[in-house]
Fold this protein.
Amino acid sequence: MATHNPYITPKLFKFFRDLKKNNERDWFEANKQRFEDDVRSPLLAFIDDFAEPLYRISPHFRADPRKVGGSLFRIFRDVRFSKDKTPYKTHAGVHFRHENAKSAHAPGFYLHLAPGEVFMGAGIWRPETAVTREIRAAILEHPDKWKKAIRSAAFTKGGFSLDGESLKRPPAGVEADHPFIEDLKRKDFISLADLSEKEVCAPGFPKLFADKCKSTSAFVKFLCEAVGQPY
């Protein structure tokens, strides 16, 4: 095993701390090489090297190390409909998408890196109405399988819990006293686990990330099957 982590270092978090104080084009242009050296290039290397461990978790997810359109989210914010006009995101996001993610709201694995806010996630964020209905139908039809997916020892020991927004009232046709009513009210079907800057900068982080992805396998598999995708 490597004696250091060549992917994520304290330099990444230092860059984003500085960017948060200087979120403007002139500063970013002057520090573009720092972004390349401390953020983008190391994360693209992580994505590339994670392809094999990811394949062992499921052969249907992709680690795409392209600079644009791959697993690494763009640094540029979409400010068209936002009151906040700062041009750059102050975090890095890595998303390992399902092979059919372009044609369906299939689940993915996600890593979020920001100063003071480091976490990983798995699942489907804000699916379309038809996809949400498919997931709810699967929970209603297979409650035992859903229970196992979200309450397994692996899931809870991995530090995962369900997150996201929910409806205020039960969805149509669902009894208010259903044992999984809170899950059936969900708008997002995502599980999150907190990490620390120290953990993601440690030499063993790639293995830790792989282990955490494995601990959500039953959850992600359930969602894949619910929306008719292979796991």
User: Anything to note?
Assistant: The mean pLDDT is 94. The chain is about 45% helix and 15% strand. Residues 150 and 188 are 14 Å apart (CA to CA).
